[in-house]
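Running co-folding for pyridoxal-5'-phosphate.
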Amino acid sequence: MTESSLSSLDPENWESERHQAHAMLDDLLDYLQNLPERPVWQPIPASVRHSFQEGSPGAGQPLKEIHQRFMRDILPYAVGNAHPGFMGWVHGGGTVAGLLAEMLAGGLNANLGGRDQIPVAVEQQILRWARTWFRFPETAQGIFTTGTSQGTLMALWVARVALWGEKVRQEGVGAHTLTVYAAPTVHGCLHKALDLSGLGKKSLHLVDLDESGRMDVSALQVQIGKDRQAGLTPFMVVGSAGTVDTGAIDDLAALAALCRTESLWFHVDGALGALGCWSAELAPLFQGIEQADSLAFDFHKWGQVPYDAGFLLIREGSLQRRTFSSPARYLAREERGAAAGEDWPCDLGPDLSRGFRALKTWMTVRRYGTERLGAMMAHTCALARFMADRVNRETSLELMAPVTLNIVCFRYRAEPARVDALNAQIAIALQESGIAVPSTTLVRGQRVLRVALVNHRTRARDLEALICAVLHLGQRFSTGRIQSS
Ligand SMILES: *Cc1c(COP(=O)(O)O)cnc(C)c1O
């Protein structure tokens, strides 16, 4: 072997590798073009699952064979969120621009921890755009995250420094009396973030919902008063710009006003809905979001950017640096050369090595424009209203929550003792049928079928197919024994 064939991983034959690369790209474009012809999801054969138990290979293998294996054993058995019939949980569908951006980013292999490079400037451009989308001040800082779960945890760290100063970074949180407020419908990532931040899950005080399913702001005010009286230290309120169960939007303007009077940190969970601000029609729903102290949101859901791409915005930008910057001898900044540059992202978050999430976001926004993306989001909300209307017209179906955004919760009617199990069974059967993938959740303690219209590819006919299948399965399971499906 020559030296280069031993040490370098570059192809020996660039021509055949190039050919192989084009074949892979073609397969992915075929996949996206012909999605509707595929099942949304399909059960994974035991043999395929088993094949991933194999040990680590000592010797390499041609790319062509690995590609074939991907097409045979991986691609068909993903969860299906690119498919127009995918309506489960809250998943983005991805785009061709996103696919190609991932390829470009992969080829460049930039590390966005810092240093003097345009990839960092691309991330900073997204920050500037985000300031205008959400009407945050020029002084706001921000950074890409893996998602809103990470963004929420980071927001807690920043808010902690805002309250206690940098000494908390030396001394830790220790015993404390801090309390955080949110509605019972808040996403589980807040509980997890409280746990991981050291504040503890017990510091979360849940505030009841009002009639419209939003956090009851007067109940919140009463609770804060009581807690102060009891010697606790109210600290933060978390509002949802779209709850994960039903898409309800907290009264963000009222929460912001209360936080100002009470001197509390106002965090907004915008994972599901915040980017709805791209739509002139939807933006008014999120009024008050511009007053948040921190806003965590996701490009990978409604924004259709490939996973993963979350973002955290901090109103008082200097706090972000005070929370995360950790000088190190091997990270010295210079006036010139590759180690120049003021704003190193590693000073603004927990990570040092970071991928180029900004590129796929930048390319998605540039390729489609915020107007078209906003119109796509408004369309998913129109589909949700269409779906609610269809549900209301079927006597055997029941709408289970008001439709605010792009989520519809409904169920097949049955006697109380069976209705939860029946609907859970319908969800599984639908998923296994390959026709559609809804998920389920609990609304006021009751199991519902939940359709989250996040994917830009979903059309009314996909919802018709879903309704038709639910009616069919509901009838079959109601008359037969549930297990015998
Ligand atoms: C998805 C979601 C989260 C968590 O975001 P990740 O990006 O999955 O970490 C938080 N809140 C809401 C409302 C969500 O829909």
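Result summary
The longest strand covers residues 233-240.
The chain is about 45% helix and 10% strand.
Job closed.
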